[in-house]
Amino acid sequence: MALGKYSRIDNNNNTRRSSSSSYCSTVTIVVFLGLCLVGIWMMTSSSVVPDQNGEDPAQEKKNQLQDQVTPVINDSNGGSNTPQFEDNPGDLPEDATKGDTNVSLAKDDGTGNLSTQENKENTEETKLDESKKDNEQSNFEGGDKNNDSGENSGGQGDAEENSDDKKSAPEESNEKPDSDENDKKSDSDDGEKKPDENSSENNGDKVDGQIEGKVDQNDNRESDKSSGEAKDNQSSNEVFPSGSQSELLSETMTQNGSFSTQATESKTEKEAQLSSKEYSWKLCNSTAGPDYIPCLDNWEAIRHLPSTKHYEHRERHCPEEPPTCLVPLPEGYKCPIEWPKSREKVWYYNVPHTKLAQIKGHQNWVKVTGEYLTFPGGGTQFKHGALHYIDFIEESVPDIAWGKHSCVILDVGCGVASFGGFLFDRNVLAMSIAPKDEHEAQVQFALERGIPAVSAVMGTKRLPYPGRVFDIVHCARCRVPWHIEGGKLLLELNRVLRPGGFFVWSATPVYPKIPEDVEIWKAMVELTKAMCWELVNKTGKDAVNRVAVATFKKPTTNDCYEQRSQQEPPLCPESDDPNAAWNVPLQTCMHKVPVDASERGSQWPEQWPARLEKSPYWLLSSQVGVYGKAVPEDFAADNEHWKRVVKSYIRGMGINWSSVRNVMDMRAVYGGFAVALKDLNLWIMNVVPIDSPDTLPIIYERGLFGMYHDWCESFSTYPRSYDLLHADHLFSNVKKRFV
To answer: Who is most buried in 8, 21, 159, 647, counting CB within 10 A?
Structure first.
C-alpha cells in the first residue's frame, strides 16, 4: 500500500518533470532561433556599411575633389539626419576595406594638388572640361537611381545629384525609424554597387584603377558645375565650398559674371539718393540782399585782408564752399525793358538805388523819373551825350576808324557804361569794367540797360583777358592812378593792348586846373615815353562837353625798347606768358612785341566785317584744332555748325528773341555761336573756361569779346544780368573735375 501510494506520486512527479523539460527545451530553441535571426540581421546590416562609407567611384571622386579645397568635416551621412554608423574595419569585407583605402589615397592626392592649383592660369579652360564631367556623372548616377525601384536613398551621392531625392530625404529621415532608414540605405547601396561589380568584377585593383582613373579624368572638369548642383550642395551640411565653388572664387578671374561689384553698387546707390533727393532751396542770407555776388561779397575774407591799399577788397574772394542758395528778387521787379529803349531808361524797382542819382545827377549819369531810372547824358566827361564824345575822339585821331579799324575796346572805370552803350551805333563792342560799390550799382545799371559790363578792378592781379587783344583802351576820368609804383597798372593795359592799338585818356590831368593834375600829367608823359608809347594827339577842350582827350599809341616793333638808355620799366622775361591771366599777380614789366609774321600780334586784324568770318592769319594748317582737324578747317567747320544750330534755335525753341539782349556763351570755343547771332539785336559774352583750350584770342581776333572764368566759382556779375545762357558741353566737362 505504502509502495503503491508512493509509486503513484513518483509517476506524477516524473510526468511533471518530463513536461517541464519539454517546455524548457521549446523556450531554449525559440530563444536560440531568435538570437540566430538577430545575428543574421546584424550580419546583414553590417555588410551594408562598407558601401555606405565607400561609395561608388563617381561619388567618391566628388568627395575627393571637395577635399581638394579643404578637409571635409562632415561624415558620409552629412546630407541627411539618418543615424551615423561607426566605421569599423574589423567588420568590413576585404573589398570594402580596399575601396576605403583607395578612396582615402585619392583624397590625399586631391589635397596635395590644391597647392599646385593656387596659380590658376587656365581657369576658364578647366571650367569647360569639368562641365562635361558633371554632365556625365549626373547621367551615370541618374541611371543608378532608375534601377532603385523608386525608393529614396540615404546615400550622399544620390542626395546631391537627384533634386527630387534631395527634397524628400530630409523629411523621411526624420519621420521613419532607424531600421527602415538602414534598409533603404541597404537597397540603395546595393543598387549603386551593381555597376561597380559588373565593371570591375569585385577586383580591388580594378576598383582602384577605376577610381584613380576617374580622379585623373575629372581633375580638369569639376570646377564648372551647374547652378542646380550648387543648389543641391546647399542642401547638405557641408561647411566648405566644393571644387567648382573654389574655382569661382579664384583671384585670377577677369569677369564679374552675374555679380556686380561693391564699388558699383555703392556708386549707384549714392547716385540714386542724390537723384531722388528733394532740395529745399533757401534764400541767401547776405547783407547784399538781391545784389549778392558770392565772390565779391565775401566779407569774412575781406575782413581778414592785410591791406586794402591796392583795392584788394574789390577783387574776387570766393568762399571755400560755393553757396547753394537763391538770390531773392527786388520787391516790385518787372521784366526788363527791351533794347534800344532800355539804353535810355530802366524800371526803378529792378535796380532800386537812388544814391548814384543823388551824387551824379548833375552830371546826367542817372535820374529818377517816376517809376523809371533815366540816363539823359552818359557820364562825367560827356554830360551832353556820348555820341558827340565818340565822334570827337575819332576826329582827333582818324586812324581809330570806329567799327572798321577799331572794333573791340576796353572801357576802364565805365560808370553806367553809356560810352559802350552808344558805341553799338558804330559797330564797336566795349568791354566795360568797374569795381562793385565804388559808385553804387554802376555795373548793374549798365547790364539792366543792355550794355556789356563786368565787375572788376585794377588792383593786384591781371585782368581776365589774354594779352594783345584790345584795339583801344579807354579811360574817361576813371580815377586810376596809372603813374604810381613804376606804372604797374598802366603796364597791365600795355599787356592787353594790341600792338599799334590806342590808349584814349580824357581825365582832368589832360586839361589840368590844379597843381596835382599838372604833376600827374608830367608823370604820365615820362612813363608813357619810357614805355615807348607815342602821344599821337592831345586835344584842347571840346566846345560841347568841355573836355580834352590825349591819345597814345603802342609800338609795333621792338626798336624803341632796345634803344632806351634806361631799361625802366624792364622787359618781361621770355618765360613770362602774356596770355596767362587767371589769378596771376601784376608785374612791373613789358612784353616784347611779336615780330614773326606768323605770330599773333605781328599784324593788325582784317577790317570789320571781314575779320568776323575770316580765319586769323596766325592759325596754321600744321596746328591741330579743338575738334581734331587742322585749325583753319576746325575754325570753318565750327562756323558752319553753329549757323545750322542757331537756325534751329531761332525757329524751333519758342524764344521771343526780341526780349533777349544780354547773352552769355558759357563755353565759347571759337565764337561760332556769337557769329551766328550777329544779325540779331543782342550781344554775347564769350566765356572760355580756364580748363578748356585757350581759344579766347581767336574770339577777339574776330572782332568779338569775352573773358576767362572758372565755372567752379561764381561769375563777377550781378544777379539777373543775362537774358539767355548758352552751355554747350559745359556741365559734363565740369563734372569730370570732381570725379
So the answer is: 159
**Distance of alpha carbon 432 from alpha carbon 455, whole angstroms:** 9
* pLDDT, position 735: 83
CA 617 to CA 735: how far, in whole Å?
35
Spatial contact of 98 and 204, defined as CB atoms under 8 Å apart: yes
**CA-CA distance, 28 to 6, in Å (whole number)?**
32
CA dihedral (234, 237, 243, 248) in degrees, to 10, reads 40
pLDDT grade for 143, boundaries at 50, 70 and 90: very low
Cell of 466: 589774354
Question: What letter would DSSP give residue 375?
Answer: -
Q: 737 vs 448, which has greater pLDDT?
A: 448
| Residue-wise pLDDT tens digits, 146-182 | 444 444 434 444 434 344 444 344 344 444 444 444 4
C-alpha cell at 421: 552803350
**DSSP letter (8 states) at residue 235:** H
> pLDDT at residue 4 above 60?
no
Strands 372-374 and 345-347: antiparallel
- Rounded CA-CA distance 298/300 in Å is 5
Helices (H), 378-469: 386-396, 418-423, 442-448
Going by C-alpha positions, the residue among 726, 734, 733, 731 that lies closest to residue 706 is 726
d(CA 401, CA 393): 10
- CA torsion 26→29→34→40, rounded to 10°? -160
Q: Is the peptide bond before 569 cis (omega within 30 degrees of 0)?
A: yes
pLDDT at 459 over 80: yes
Q: For residues 666, 670, 674 and 675, what is the CA-based torsion angle, rounded to 10 degrees?
A: -170
- Chain segment 601-616, per-residue pLDDT in tens: 999 999 999 999 999 9
**Helices within 70-177 (DSSP H only):** 94-116, 123-146, 156-161, 163-175
**CA–CA gap between residue 110 and residue 61 (Å, rounded):** 9
pLDDT at residue 108, as a whole number: 40
- According to DSSP, the residues that pair with 262 across neighbouring strands are none
Describe the crossing of helices 163-175 and 227-235 by its angle, rounded to 10 degrees: 10
Read off the C-alpha cell for 606: 582784317
- Of residues 291, 446, 447, 470, the one with CA closest to residue 379: 446
| Position with higher pLDDT, 20 vs 509 | 509
Predicted confidence at residue 168, as pLDDT, reads: 40
Separation CA 247–CA 240 (nearest Å): 13
Say which amino acid occupies 604. W
- Side chain identity at residue 702, one-letter code: R
598 beta partners: none
Q: Is residue 541 within 8 Å of residue 548, measured between CB atoms?
A: yes
Show the CA angle centred on residue 321, arms to residues 317 and 326, nearest 5°.
Answer: 95
| Residue 347: its H or E element | strand 345-347
The Cα–Cα gap between 364 and 383 comes to: 6
Helix (H) or strand (E) holding 43: helix 2-46
CA distances from 174 to 78, 80, 82, 148 (A): 14, 9, 7, 21
Using N-to-C axis directions, what is the helix angle for 57-69 and 94-116, rounded to 10°? Answer: 30
Residue 560's φ and ψ, nearest 5 degrees, are -65, -40
Residue type, 366: V
CA distances from 393 to 383, 401, 472, 539 (A): 15, 10, 12, 9
Under the banding of pLDDT at 50, 70 and 90, the label for residue 35 is confident
Give the relative orientation of helices 204-218 and 178-200 as an angle to the nearest 10 degrees. Answer: 90
Amino acid identity of 32? Answer: F
Is the distance from CB of 713 to CB of 321 less than 8 angstroms? no
